[in-house]
Amino acid sequence: MAVNIEQKVTVVGLGYIGLPTAALIARSGCQVTGIDVSATVVETINKGKVHIEEVDLDGLVQGVVARGTLVASTTMAAADTFVIAVPTPHDADYRPDISFVLDAARAIAPALEAGNLVILESTSPVGTTEKVADLIADLRPDLKVPGRCSGAADIFIAHCPERVLPGRILVELVDNDRCIGGVTPRCARRAMTFYRQFVRGACVTTTARAAEMVKLVENSYRDVNIAFANELSMMAEALGVDVWEVIRLANRHPRVNILQPGPGVGGHCIAVDPWFLVHGAPEHSRLIRTAREVNIAKTAHVIGATEMLVSQHPNARVACLGLAFKPNIDDFRESPALEVAAALARRFGPQIDIVEPYARGLPMEFAGTGARLIDLDSALSECELLIVLVDHDLFKSIPLEERADKIVYDTRGLWLDQPSGGHSNRLHRAA
Among residues 55, 6, 39, which one has the least CA distance to residue 23? Predict the structure, then answer.
């Protein structure tokens, strides 16, 4: 995994994927410039600090910045390899928005020289890498662009989507296999050579379109399976059955592995990427679309159920436990927990308290509601009603005696030891 120390790499986008990627490449010996549109982000990184929460990232960034192998800038820098790691959101109608990717390509184009490699890591609709190639070909007619010229191209363009888990990003960027799709086979081989410098997992080459679809399929697979669990949870609640017991017993079958339900699906991947497939082939994506609709409906179901519960206890203080989209991280993107808590805060105002150990303040969704951000001890002392939205380790540590007298609505099956009688019944937990 040795690297030529003279190799220069520019990473465009210093968010949850771009910054860890830039730092790891810098650690391997390359001279890395990280580009971001936010002057605040650039200033923070150049001080050796980080603007996102990720295990061990702060120490890594501090080290590579101190050694001078990573610098951040708002201005594009020349490089041997350019890595695009910018967001790919969707609009209100769930249509994919690749404008940030194309803007990054426009920024890179003037800096390109013969022999350079351009890698798109952003999760993208099928065909996006080819659009990047088209754009570069239009902006740089002096360069022979792969797939847009005869004979050998001057530059190389490929797609290599990240496939990491928040909280384990640094480990998985190195250890996970990488699927590398080239606009041409020659591009794929060149990109594979780049990744082999710092990736221990297998580097497998394919076409750019296949690599784009692989990432979308991975997240759609998860979404479909979570939708099954969430649909079961709503059915079980309607039938008066404990869904957690049903799933536990069903999973004793040697060929059954049902996932755990929750208040919906969040994050920038699983909650977003399936729509890219739906819009790419709408007539052939009925199951994937339905799974998305089920998971969206689950969040609405939890909002309705918790609003009814709070309405039945008008004088009770309510603690919503968690805002992140998954446990033990500070990432609130597309979070169903945040959506549920914000809906309750808008309706019930100061009656609602929020416990989120990974937040320094309440997100903008709570502005003007009167809701408070409090610590867990205060919630256990002051609140009669607990709504479990995220299964943070901190919440798992609460012993039964501290919550036995609480009214509990548990969307995560966190407290299966809660008494089945009285207020903390299985109806609330089975949501």
Answer: 55
